[in-house]
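Chain entry —
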Amino acid sequence: MNPPPHRVSVVLLGLALAGPAASANELTVNVSDNQGQPARNVVVVATPKAPVSAPARSPTMVEMDQVDRQFAPYVLAIQTGTRVLFSNNDSVAHQVYSFSPPKRFELALYHGKPREPVLFDKPGIVTVGCNIHDNMIGYLYITESPWFGTTASDGVWKARDIPAGEYELQVWTPLLPPHEWLQTQSVVVGETSARASFKLKRGLRPEPVPIKDKRVRDY
């Protein structure tokens, strides 16, 4: 069960309520830690509170690679119905698995050519690991909203062509304690571009460190 959301302050610029016929705009979200430093790999999701004109959905496939005994990217945001190809471009073999309720699966030990892609058809948070290397961990955030992504190294995520209306804006990262993983705020996107700012309650834990020593070959 996901922990209850925490409220955070959000600053919105140039916003106004808009009717159903309003044009699509751009929403820029900036996420920082408690020291004001950019927070990267933070999932951002904008979910409309009322029906809006959403882009047509089509089956997609994305990739989560394995390099230097870590998953790349470390955090991957996808929409329900997406297939994920767990490639292995590492120097060793891996056995990817997850026990998370939204998707339980296990891929037999492999190296080089990836196994069949895994379909993620339910929303939620999925933690993935390797049965061979306990230090490996990655996360998938599956959402039903078509407006989602992760922040870049500058702590910024942008939603382009997002229809005007009221949204639930949500940020999530595995680098905070579990009870602080989820933070949400209601926002309104108007007829001009909008900006929102999240400041997390504390500093983020470091991401897992890749193992780059190619001399170590266990599998």
